[in-house]
Specification:
Elements (H helix, E strand, L loop, with lengths): L8 H9 L4 H51 L21 E2 L5 E13 L7 H11 L5 H8 L6 E7 L1 H10 L4 E10 L7 H4 L1 E7 L4 E7 H5 L1 H5 L8 E2 L4 H17 L4 E8 L5 E7 L37 H11 L7 E3 L4 E3 L2 E3 L8 E3 H7 L2 H11 L1 H10 L26 H8 L8 H12 L24 H17 L13 E10 L5 E14 L6 E8 L3 E3 L2 E3 L6 H15 L20
Parallel strand pairs: 1-7
Antiparallel strand pairs: 1-2, 2-3, 2-4, 5-6, 8-9, 8-16, 10-13, 11-12, 14-15, 15-16, 17-18
Helix pairs in contact: 3-4, 3-5, 9-17, 10-12, 10-16, 11-16, 12-14
């Protein structure tokens, strides 16, 4: 804007020439300037008000239009959408080899109290004690009326219990959502699964963590959100596991044993199809560990993995197989069995007198300690130890359980010649039934090392060779002869050609020496013997049965018939058809000329 001067020189000079007052010119110009400034300010204000009015009109118009649209639509619950796969936060399921559930999650609630918010603590305590019999009303009332501001009542409650607590109507009793680990089959496969518990927990959520078995071993994998809840599939067969537990439980009671275990394993893949340890427990209500006494008597103790025992004569086939592999003997080699065999202050005897000589095959069939010890002398301590190491008898088994590393074999401090002799027939070295199953599988599958696993495998293992196929075939023939001619005659199952070896070992005393009336009875079996698919090891702790007027504690009378019944039950479940010879037709038949 061009401003006009208040005192223009030309006008001032003309005004003076006419005798007028020049100040009037300045006053007039000042008035005109002020009017011009007022007009300009008014125009700016009017423009701003117009813009603001337009903005308000647009905003209210938009809101009104949106309200009209919402009013004319059908009400619906809001939904959330996300791109890609959602992250699964819960613990993954555990399945058996056929996809059947072994462990899963269940949505439930916890119950807690906030005493400051309670109206009638005495009534609440009485009602809760009626709903939960394990709670005491007096103790609850003391907590409700004390200084505590928060109190857990139950970590898990059923829907029925939740409704009963809700009916109390006490505002200080509150519920929190959470997940619990559920084992729908109860005690079946309890020692394999182990169990789970709560880690970090709050009123609205809780962290489920594994405490034993595969639940603990695979804890990170089961809780990893990156796996998107993919289940963990084990090698176990639920049907075979249940049948094995039922038979072994009955056998343990019939044989008056204090404990029992069994392992059923595929000889080619190393898959464990069944693993039983008795006494067992329900992982839904896992008991506490023993605080005193022998932990081996606890139901939590896994005898198949953690229990290391002198397993007795089942080791004899290992010794003979090594000797045949070294070319020291063959099945018909004559072995000196005259006895007793004396080494220093130690004496080795047989169960009965077998004469002065037996063939290698007869040493296994008749289970001669003296014959096996003499074969071990030819092998030597260094070669024996190396062979047992190749079979996995000197280290804990790598099975996928948190308890596996604790099953450490007990070895002699000085692997002397006498140790070599006693180890050859199963004394002086303690190992677990799982060690034995893996060792037998490696010997009878053609001679390649097998590592036991609890995960499903689709292909045979390609392990290192431990014996030749020819030696493996000879060993299988000897094991079959033990059942048909020797100490395991009760183990024959029609149609399945069972082979195996018995072992009866005296239990060691804590103060030294051995009990005379307490044994560990073991039967390590393979079936079918001519082309093995499975190994079954059954072990009974302190069995005894009255038969033919005598108390029997040997494996042939105790473990063998139990194993035979387990094979009879399990084989059909494993899709194994019995190989039964066809009978000749009876009666009139049509023939051609």
């Amino acid at each position: 804007m061009i401003r006009t001067p208040l005192r223009p020189l030309a006008r001032i000079l003309r005004a003076r020439d006419r005798g007028e007052n020049p100040d009037r010119i300045e006053a007039e110009n000042r008035r005109l300037r002020h009017e011009q400034m007022q007009d300009s300010a008014r125009q700016r204000a009017e423009g701003r008000l117009l813009v603001m009015a337009a903005m308000f009109l647009f905003a209210f118009g938009t809101i009104g239009l949106r309200m009209g649209v919402l009013a004319s639509t059908v009400p619906a619950e809001p939904t959330a959408q996300a791109r890609g796969n959602p992250i699964i936060g819960q613990r993954a399921d555990i399945l058996d080899r056929e996809g059947r559930i072994l462990a899963t999650n269940l949505q439930t609630h916890s119950l807690y109290a906030q005493p400051p918010q309670m109206i009638d603590p005495e009534r609440a305590a009485t009602e809760l004690a009626a709903i939960f019999p394990e709670l005491e009303a007096e103790a609850l009332l003391e907590d409700f009326t004390g200084d505590r501001r928060f109190l857990w009542i139950r970590r898990e409650i059923s829907p029925e219990q939740m409704q009963a607590v809700h009916d109390i109507g006490e505002p200080g009793l509150l519920f929190g959502p959470r997940e619990m680990r559920l084992y729908p089959n109860g005690a079946v496969a309890a020692h394999v699964l182990g169990g789970a518990s709560y880690g970090r927990e709050g009123v609205s959520s809780a962290e489920v963590i594994g405490v034993a078995g595969v639940e603990k071993h695979f804890d990170d994998r089961l809780r990893d959100p990156a796996n998107e809840g993919a289940p963990l599939r084990l090698s176990l067969d639920l049907s075979v596991q249940a049948a094995s537990e039922r038979v072994l439980q009955g056998g343990m009671m019939l044989m008056n044993a204090k404990g029992a275990s069994s392992v059923l394993m595929d000889v080619d893949t190393g898959e464990i199809l069944s693993m039983v340890s008795l006494p067992d427990f329900d992982p839904n209500d896992r008991p506490r560990a023993l605080t005193e006494g022998d932990q081996g008597d606890s139901p939590l103790f896994n005898r198949a993995v953690q229990g290391v025992y002198e397993l007795g004569s089942v080791f004899k086939i290992v010794t003979v197989a090594q000797a045949m592999e070294l070319g020291l003997v063959d099945p018909e080699t004559e072995i000196d069995t005259s006895g007793p065999l004396t080494w220093g202050r130690f004496t080795i005897r047989d169960f009965r007198d077998y004469g002065d000589e037996l063939t290698t095959r007869e040493v296994i069939v008749k289970s001669s300690n003296i014959g096996t010890a003499r074969i071990a002398q030819e092998i030597g301590a260094e070669r024996q130890r190396a062979f047992l190491d190749r079979l996995g008898f000197l280290d804990p088994t790598p099975a996928e359980m948190v308890e596996a590393p604790t099953g450490v074999p007990l070895l002699p401090d000085n692997w002397s010649e006498i140790s070599t002799m006693t180890i050859s027939y199963g004394h002086g070295l303690s190992s677990s039934p799982l060690h034995l199953a893996a060792g037998y599988a490696s010997l009878v599958n053609g001679g390649t090392r097998v590592t036991p696993t609890l995960l499903r495998r689709d292909r045979p293992q390609q392990g290192a060779r431990v014996v030749s196929p020819e030696v493996s075939a000879r060993a299988r023939a000897m094991l079959r002869a033990v059942v048909t001619e020797g100490t395991a005659s009760f183990g024959d199952v029609a149609g399945y050609r069972v082979g195996g070896k018995t072992g009866t070992a005296d239990k060691p005393r804590p103060e030294g020496g051995y009990f005379e009336d307490k044994t560990i009875a073991t039967f390590a079996s393979v079936f079918p013997a001519d082309d093995p698919r499975y190994v079954l090891v059954v072990t009974l702790d302190e069995p005894q049965i009255e038969a033919l007027g005598e108390t029997r504690r040997t494996a042939g009378w105790t473990a063998v018939p139990v194993a035979a019944e387990m094979i009879r039950r399990a084989a059909p479940l494993l899709d194994m058809r019995p190989d039964v010879a066809r009978r000749r037709p009876v009666g009139v038949t049509l023939t051609s000329n």
